[in-house]
Design goal:
Elements (H helix, E strand, L loop, with lengths): L4 H4 L5 H4 L11 H4 L5 E7 L8 H9 L2 E6 L2 H10 L3 E3 L2 H4 L8 E4 L4 E4 L5 E3 L1 E2 L2 H8 L3 H13 L1
Helix pairs in contact: 5-7
């Protein structure tokens, strides 16, 4: 998702990193991403050694992820950074094309394709994990819990 040099240099500024998302596989896509966009990944997302930098970049970009599969370590990073995500079986994933306008309810898994019409059902995270993401990740979730306890 990002060149390894950012992990080696230990760069942790999401705003700086977001401009380099996917530059090795899809040059220019980072500059076209807007907050609220959905990355649809027709393959295995987050495999290999998972450095924090790509997830910081995704969070800074404000995007969600729908992927064919998400290994547990990728799920941990997505949740920790507050990035909404869900999985979608390949046969359903193939009904979405680049540039389609989607609305994704990450809590229920409901995906509406406004470009082609129709709805499909993704597999959402467990409710507990969705709540962590809704609070902005682990840090936001802990802060929300501490505020709740202070009342």
């Amino acid at each position: 998702m990002l060149p390894l040099r950012f992990a080696i240099q230990r760069i942790a500024d999401g705003e700086e990193l977001r401009h380099h998302l996917f530059e090795g596989v899809r040059p220019g896509i980072a500059e076209r991403l807007n907050p609220g966009d959905i990355l649809v990944v027709n393959g295995h997302f987050g495999t290999g050694k998972l450095h924090v930098q790509p997830f910081l970049a995704l969070r800074a970009a404000g995007v969600g992820v729908v992927a064919r599969s998400l290994p547990h370590l990728a799920v941990r990073r997505l949740v920790a950074e507050g990035i909404p995500a869900a999985t979608l079986p390949g046969e359903q994933l193939s009904t979405i094309e680049d540039g389609d306008r989607l609305t994704v309810d990450f809590a229920s898994g409901d995906i509406e394709n406004h470009t082609r019409g129709g709805r499909i059902a993704a597999v959402p995270f467990d409710r507990f994990l969705v709540d962590i993401v809704r609070h902005g990740g682990l840090e936001g979730s802990v802060r929300a819990e501490l505020r709740r306890r202070d009342r």
